[in-house]
Specification:
Number of domains: 1
Strand order of the largest sheet: 3-2-1-4
CATH architecture: 3-Layer(aba) Sandwich
Largest sheet: 4 strands, parallel
Oligomer: single chain
Order of helices and strands: EHHEHHEHHEH
Helix content: 55-70%
Amino acid sequence: MVAYLDCSVLLRYVLLGDTGLRHAMNFPTLVSSELLEIECRRTISRCRLQNELDDTGVVQALLRLDETFEMMDLVEMDAGIKRRAMGSFPVVIKTLDALHLATALALAEQEDQASIQVFSYDKAMNLCARALGFGAPLLV
C-alpha cells in the first residue's frame, strides 16, 4: 500500500499539528511529487513574511517538515508526468493538483493502482483521484 500526499495534508500537520497525516504514516510507503517540497517551503516562507508564523513557529514547522521528508520518497517530475498533467482529467482540477495526480498515475505504472491512496483535503482532487481509480480516504 502506498500513501500519496498532497500539500494540504502535510501543511495542516506542519503548521497546525493536524492528525490527518498519521493515517498516511501507517502505510509502508509514503510518496509525493518533488513539487510537495516546493509548495510546503514556499507556504512556510509566505506565512513568516505575512507574520502568520513567528520565529519559533517557523523553526517548528521546518523541523516537522524535514522529519516527514526523511520518511518519504519524492518523485521527480519527468517529461511524461508534465505531459500527462497538461492533458484532460475527469474532474476540473487546478494545475498543481494535475501535476500531483499525473505523478500518482506514473507511480501506478509500477504499483497496483488500487493500492495507491491519495491523501488530500481538496475535494476536487479527491474526486478526481477516485475517478482515476485511486483511493481517497479523506474524501467526505
